[in-house]
Write a structure and sequence with these properties.
Elements (H helix, E strand, L loop, with lengths): L10 H17 L9 H21 L10 H11 L4
Amino acid sequence: MIPYDKEIKSKADFLTFLTLYNQDLKSCPEEWANRDLPSFLDALQGWVEDMEQYYINTKQDVPLDVNWKVLYDMLMAARVYE
């Protein structure tokens, strides 16, 4: 299981998370509702559309400083990066 950690503050932290995230999918696929790319991307889109409510419901500050361009670049690069 992936440890829930709100303290991702660096590239290294994020890379560690991605490693654990990928390992979790491989070792516990039954725990993932969205195992294929189309359903994963649909879920990601839905969550981003509703994300403000998630933060409100969990009594957290709604992030205002998300760098959407970097997220866009990451997703676009992952299409073709080997």
